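Page header: ASSEMBLY MODEL / two components / 780 residues total.
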Amino acid sequence: MAAPKASLHLVAPVWNGGTRGIGGLSRVVAPEGNQKKGRSLLQFLADRFYDVEALRDHLLRKQVSKVHQKNRPFNHINQRYGPYVAGAYFILKQGGAVRFQGREWIRPNQRGHFSLDFLKLQAVPVEAVDASGCAINYQGLDSLLALKELQSLWLQRCPHVDDWCLSRLHPLASSLQELSLAGCPRVSERGLACLHHLWNLRRLDISDLPAVSSPGLTRILVEEMLPSCEVLGADWAQGLKLGPEEQPRDTAGPTPA
Amino acid sequence: MLRRTLLLGLCRGPLGRGLGTHRGGSILGKVEGRGGYRGSWMAPSSSSVTFRTQDPAHDVKTVGRLGGGDRDGKMSEIKKKIQSILPGGDWNPLYDTSYLPPEGSDVVIVGGGVLGLSVAYWLKKLEKPRGAIRVLVVERDHTYSRASTVLSVGGIRQQFSVPENVQLSLFSVDFLRNINEYLAVADDPPLDIQFNPSGYLLLASEKGAAIMENNVKEGAKVCLMSPEQLRNKFPWINTEGVALASYGMEHEGWFDPWCLLQGLRRKVQSMGVLFCRGEVTRFVSSSNLMKTASGEEVNLKRIHEVHVKIDQSLEYQPVECAIVVNAAGAWSGQVAELAGIGNGPPGTLQGTKLPVELRKRYVYLWHCPQGPGLETPFVIDPSGTYFRREGLGHNYLGGCSPTEEEEPDPGNLEVDHDFFQDRVWPPLAQRVPAFETLKVRSAWAGYYDYNTFDQNGVVGPHPLVINMYFATGFSGHGLQQAPAVGRAVAEMVLEGHFQTINLSSFLFSRFYSGEKVQEHNII
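Prediction written out in full:
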């Protein structure tokens, strides 16, 4: 079955000071022990006081609305400068990097600031987007899908990219050649099934997906699904229980453990 | 004092200890002197416990240190009794009535499947002010062993011919995508409905191709494919006899209905909806003779009480109610008859029955190692046979709707395996040649709440029994429209009219006036 996900807990950002950056993300997802101590105090109080319960619900809702806010579309930029610049601005604002055709990578610096030189590049298509670790979600993909000549998309370790987002990628089918989903905690094999629309895909990275139930078998099935694509993923033997005492009972197909 | 404590600690002292708290335990109910502490019983880590009652009239029941395992059972019983006596507990001095529904409830929802729970959820979500309405859900089968929801194949699509169906389905997909925002319960893990966004592929023969082109409606992301394109995309399909195919690219797929049901149940319980395990056996109603604007006399009925019979017992509880929602699924016709709908000369509004009946449908699970790969959508053949992938292990689910003549007897949920051999396998093998070698692993049967009039749902109040609302009759696509229909019924109950999606063509009165809202894409 799918790996258990971290519960919708308020505590991690409140007690651990936010999830800015990649280190922060792992703090949210991984350590159960650290979370449990802080969590039980807040839960204890929330079970007994209505005010603490309301405060906790309010903070949870604020967290959710923060992600929504980050993913809002920049319609005024779109109207003024065109979809390529709007998409680039969106990614840069989230903390990712963008490469226009024939240019170098544009990245925000340590404090999140970036130069606005690219505003002149209205007719230059965006070729590569590196949105690793960004809080991009289903709504935020609107800005990305307008980039019709996108060739390379990196969505490594994005916490809010899930199966629904993958089903939205089909408008990029004619141009997308490289896609990386390594480390996304919410992507499962069900979302990977709708990557078959991307017939131009040449490189696909699906390594280290915790929500995929059988990584080895999934990789084989994805390779069969996309014959002209190089799939980087788990080793095919991962997830299989092999050993002299353990014979697979069903010889019709590989049975994952 | 210290010496006495030590004596008691060392040997199991007599019951004569002074009052006081003890480390490791806590005091029942409110602590005196510390206002505002909503105390609750904390299970002590050690086996030693002290507690006292708050009622000064009784003898103070104190118990000293207990260490014995043989006394723990009795102690917990005494603890429970005392806790129930104190304010906040549900102590009834005469007998235990916790299994009975309340004596009165504003809304009684008959049927606790996905539609009934969805109505309950939206009623609680849209009510103003919060906590204004008491909702009771009556479900006679708490294991859901025969409910259509959990036996369903779980698909959701927007490829319908009726525009309202498309809108209902679009909102439901939205609901499922943001299910953890809608159905979030604090401190419980998030829901994973295991949605497969693989889409639906509807194939049409020459005859159906024209209808299919017309059916591509606003809002549905569907692409029409010729047989050539179909062969390129899905090489395992045999396109003989297929003139056109419509493939849903987004917002279509299948999911786990049990998870949705449990998520709704959990959320709805946290919002304060009451559940009762029983069966509705009688409606007590009153009638008023009224005159319409044209002078015609009409008998308007109003349901006052719902008699809920408790499972495996002759006992029943009359529940006074203001509104009854009929969400009983395949059994809605029987519930409607209890309310007197259809008692009258045929051809009149009084004589129009609710045309929802049970229809049995089979679903088969088979294994085919050379079958279609991971990209397989939910395929629907022109002959009515359908199949979809299940999991990663080359297993497939599928079935076929029988024709009117071959309808199986809906008295039980036994599976007819000959039906698979005769009616399901040949068209499957013809459409997907790899399915010529397959092995059926298991099968089950479930009920459709089949609307014999036009196979579309009934939503909204009855024109004569003015406080009965329907949310039933969806003939196999109820699960995929449940969130939106629940919202529509809640709007009708709370506001009196549909606010977001206009479902006035789905009202009961169409059965009398004969206006069919025929849905062509029914599987």
